[in-house]
TrEMBL record:
Residues annotated as binding heme c: C46, H50
InterPro entries on file: Cyt_c-like_dom, Cyt_c-like_dom_sf, Cyt_c_ID
Keyword tags: Electron transport, Heme, Iron, Metal-binding, Transport
Pfam name, any one: Cytochrom_C
Protein name: Cytochrome c domain-containing protein
Gene Ontology molecular functions: electron transfer activity; heme binding; iron ion binding
Domain Cytochrome c: 32-123
């Protein structure tokens, strides 16, 4: 019995040391993903229509984040074209955004998640 218990305890300890992240590592990852999200947001020309706190052509990121938080909806699914928009806009704005989805649909899910995290960080 001792021959089985000791290796199992050792294995659990070793595996847990690989899977646990410190708070500092988590914060660094979040900061990195926010920076990547902000960079992608700008490079994909999203900022031509959406500003952080001011409505330009489309709604502000602050308004978008508030709606998605309130409804617990996924920006990633919307950017993949798998969910309908939940932020109320004029039909012309919706048409522009639908055309812009051709930019976001082929993007990697990880990059879309970073963009989503950036948008959701705006208060």
């Amino acid at each position: 019995m001792k021959k089985i218990v000791l290796p199992l305890v050792t294995l659990c300890f070793v595996l847990s040391s690989f899977t646990l992240k410190t708070e500092k590592e988590t914060i660094l990852y979040t900061k990195s993903s926010l920076e990547n999200g902000k960079k992608l947001f700008a490079s994909k020309t999203c900022s031509a229509c959406h500003q952080e706190k001011v409505k330009v052509v489309g709604p502000s990121l602050k308004d978008i984040a508030a709606k998605y938080k309130a409804k617990k909806a996924s920006i990633v699914l919307f950017l993949q074209g798998k969910a309908k928009p939940i932020v109320e806009t004029e039909s012309g704005q919706t048409a522009i955004m639908q055309a812009s989805l051709s930019i976001t649909k082929p993007m990697k899910a990880e990059d879309l998640k970073d963009i989503s995290e950036y948008i959701m960080s705006i208060k």
